[in-house]
Amino acid sequence: MTRTATNPAPRTPGRVPPRPGFAAWGRLIGRHRRLVLGLWLVAVLAGVPALSQLADNLTAGGFEVPGSGSAQVAALEKQALPQRFDRTSVLVVHSDRTTIDDPGYAAALARVRAALAASPGVADVSDPRATRQVSPDRRTAVVEVGINEPQDAAYAHAPKLQEAVDRALAGTPADGAMTGDAPFYAAFQETGSEDLATAERIVLPLVLAILLLALGSAVAALLPLALAGIAASVGLALISVLGANTTVNIFTQNLATMIAIGVGIDYALFVLRPFRRALARGLTPQEAVGEALGSSGHGVLVSALTVVVALAGTQLVDVPAYRSMGLGAMIAVAVAATAALTLFPAMLAMLGTRVNALRLPGRLGRRTYGDEPRSGRLRAVVDLPVRRPWWVVGGTVALLALLALPALHLRLGTSGPDILAEDAAPRVAAQRLAEGFGAGRAGPLRVLVAAPPATGGPDAAPIAPDTRAGVERIARALSARLHTDPEVVDVAPAQIGAGGRVAALTVATRHGPQSAQVIDLVHRLRATLPEVAGAGTTVLVGGEPAQNVDLNAQVGGSVPKVIALVLVLSFVLLMVAFRSLPIALKAVVTNLASVLAVYGVLVWVFQDGHGASLLGVHAPGYVEVFLPLFLFCILFGLSMDYEVFLLTAVRRAHLDGYRTKDAVVRAVTGTAGVIGPAAAIMIVVFGGFAFTTLVPIQAIGFGLAVAVLLDVSVVRLLLVPATLVLLGERNWWLPKWLAALLPPSPAPGAEVPRAPAPRWSDHGDHRAEGASPATQPTGSTLDGPAQPSPASTAAGSQERVDAEPSPSPSGRSPGQ
C-alpha cells in the first residue's frame, strides 16, 4: 500500500517548523492589535478631506480614444478655431401651447435670457431668433449659454442655472431644460447619489438580516458591515486622490462602492467563521486570530489577487474612462482584502469572546459557531456529481451554453442623456431637440479640413495668400458632397480658423448619434471625403457619433489581448497557488464558461428586453460599449472567488490523505455553511444596484449578481466537483521540472495539535492507503500542508478550523 503522492512525510507529532505563514501573521496582528487599529484610524481620518472632494475630482468624460480621428478633431478645434468661451451649455425652450411668435412666449424667452445673463459664470446668452435656432414648428428654441469659468465651478453652478431657468419661466406658456457637459454631469451626480441611497435602503437591511441569521449574534453580524464600510471609504478616498491627478470617470464611484461592500463582507465572513470556532475550543483571542488567518488567509489573498489580476486587463484598453473604472475596482478589492487581513483580525482580537454578544433568541442564538450543514438534500446534491460526474458535466455545460446563446447577437451602443431619469433636465432637453430639429441635432458630426503647413515649419514662412481661399473652396465642396447623402439633414456654414488654414463643418443627421445609420455614415465619410478634398489636405470626421465609432474600434481591438492577458495571468496565479496544472486549467475554463453565460443573460434582458419590466430595469436595446470587456475582467475575477475557496478546501482534505472523491464531498459540504451566506450577501449587494436608475450601473449590478448565483450553484455545487472527480489523482499533477521552478508551498498556518478527522459514515475510510491514524497528516490549513497530530490529542481539539463532517455512527474517529 502506498501513500497519496501529495501527502508530506510524517513529522514529529505536535511539532511545527518555525516558518512564517498566515497563522504567524495573525498572531502578530493579535499582539499588536492596538497599533493596527490606530494605523487604520489614521488612514480613515487622512482620507476624509479627499473623500469630501470626490465629486469635484470625477468627470463625465474620458471616453475619447487618444490619437483617433474624433480626438484629433477635438484637439485641433480647441487649438485652431476661435474659442469665445471656456465651455457652452444649451437651453432648450419649448411650449406645447403656442409658438415663439406669441408675445407671451417671446416675453418668457427674454426673461429667461436675462436671468441666465445674471447667473454666475455666464459670459453670453444667444438670441435664438438671431442665430436662427428655432424649430420648423416654431415651438422650440435653442439658446446657447457661453460660460467662462473652470470646470469645477461650471459643474457646481449648473444646478443654479437650471433653477434660474425654472424661476424665470414659472407661470409662462413655455418651459426650459439645460443640457451640455456641465448640466449632464450635475444631473448624473444627483442621480448617482440617489442611486446609492436607493441601493443602501435595499441592500443594508437584507444584508444585516442574512448576517444575523447566519451568525446568530448582532455584534458578529455588524462586524463585516463595519469592515466593508471602512474599506469603501478608504478606497473612495484613494480614488479621489487619483481623480485629482488624472481622468477618473464618474461611474467609478458607484462601481467601487458596490465592489468594496460585496467583497469586503465576503472576505470578513471567511475570517470570522474560523475565529469563532477557535474561540469555542477555548483558544485565546490572539491564538484564535492566528488560527483564523491560518485557515482563511491564503484563500482571501488568492481570491483578491485573482480579481486584481483579472481587472488588470482593463489597463490594456486605451480609453481613460475605461482604465479609471478598472483601476477604481482594483483599488476597492485591494483595500478590502488588506482590511480583511489586517484591520479585521485586530478588531476580532480586541473583541475576543464579545464577538458573540447580543445573541438572537432561541436556536438561532445558540448556533453561533458556524455549525456545518448536515441536510440530506445538500448531501444528495453533492453526491450527484460524485456518483454521476459525466452526466453532471454534460448537463451543466449544456445549461451554460444555453444561457450564453443570446450573446451571439450582442449589439453595442453608447448611452447619452437617456441614461438619466426621465424628468432629468438634460434628458428632457435632448428629447425636445430631437423632436424639434431631428434626432441628430443633439449629437452632430464635425468635419474638419486642415491645409498642409508652410514649408519649414509653422514659424518659417507666412501663410500663402491663396490658402484661405483654398480651404474655403474645399469646405464648400465637402458641404455639397455631404448634402447628397440621404442621412444628412443639414450642414452649417463653415467656421474658419488658424489664419485660414482650418475649416470646420457641423453636420446634422437624420438619426441619433448612437444609431446604426449614423455609424455607417461616419465610415462612409471617412472613406470618401479625403478624395473630395484632394491630396495634401487633411480631412477628419469627429463629433459624438465619430467618437462612438472610435470607442467601438478601440474596445473591439483590445478584446484579444485583454482576454489573453487575463487568462494567462489567472492560470499562472492559480498554478502557483495550488501547485497543479489541471486545477488551474479547469478553473480558468469553468469560469470562462460562466462569464459567457452571464453575457447571454445580459443580452437577453438589457438588449432584447425579456423580463426587463419584471426585474425593474431599463432595456435600451443595446449593451453599453464598455460593458462586455469590462465585465469580462471583473466577472472572471469574482467568479473565481468561491471556486478558490472550494479548491483550497479540497486541497486541504487531499493533503490530509483523503481520496479525491471524498475530499470533494468533504470540501463542498464543509464550506457550504460560509459560502452560502457569503454568496447570498454578494447577490443582494450587487442585485441592489440593479434597481437603480443609471443603466450601466444596473447592468453591472445585474451581471455580477447573476455571475455569483451561477458560480455558487451550477459551478461550485455541480460542475467543479464533477470535473474534480473525473480527473481523480490527476488533479494534482505537476511536472517535476516545473515544481522545482515554483516557490514552495506556504508554511503551515495552525500550530494547535489536532486529532485525526472523523470519516464520512457512508463513504468509509477516505484516507489514502497505507496512512495509519498515528502518522496521518491532519489539521492542514488553507495556507499549507498539514502537521501530524498525536493520538493523545484531546477530543475538544478534533473540530477543524474549516469544514468538519459529522462523525460515523459509532461516534469514534479513526484511530480511536
Structure, explained:
This protein is of the alpha+beta class. The chain is 59% helix and 7% strand. The protein contains 26 helices and 13 strands. It has helices at 22-31, 33-52, 54-57, 69-80, 103-117, 128-131, 151-169, 181-215, 218-245, 251-280, 285-311, 320-341, 343-351, 362-366, 376-387, 389-404, 425-437, 467-483, 516-533, 544-578, 581-607, 612-615, 627-655, 660-689, 695-727, 736-741; strands spanning 87-94, 122-125, 140-147, 175-179, 412-413, 445-450, 488-491, 495-497, 502-509, 538-543, 623-624, 777-778, 787-788. α1 crosses α13, α11 (285-311) packs antiparallel against α13 and α16 packs antiparallel against α25.
Count of distinct strands: 13
Task: Report low-confidence residues grouped into runs of 5 or more.
Answer: 1-20, 368-374, 454-465, 746-816
DSSP strand content: 5-15%
What Rg is obtained from the alpha carbons, in whole angstroms? 32 Å
Give a short synopsis of this structure.
The protein has helices at 22-31, 33-52, 54-57, 69-80, 103-117, 128-131, 151-169, 181-215, 218-245, 251-280, 285-311, 320-341, 343-351, 362-366, 376-387, 389-404, 425-437, 467-483, 516-533, 544-578, 581-607, 612-615, 627-655, 660-689, 695-727, 736-741, and strands spanning 87-94, 122-125, 140-147, 175-179, 412-413, 445-450, 488-491, 495-497, 502-509, 538-543, 623-624, 777-778, 787-788.
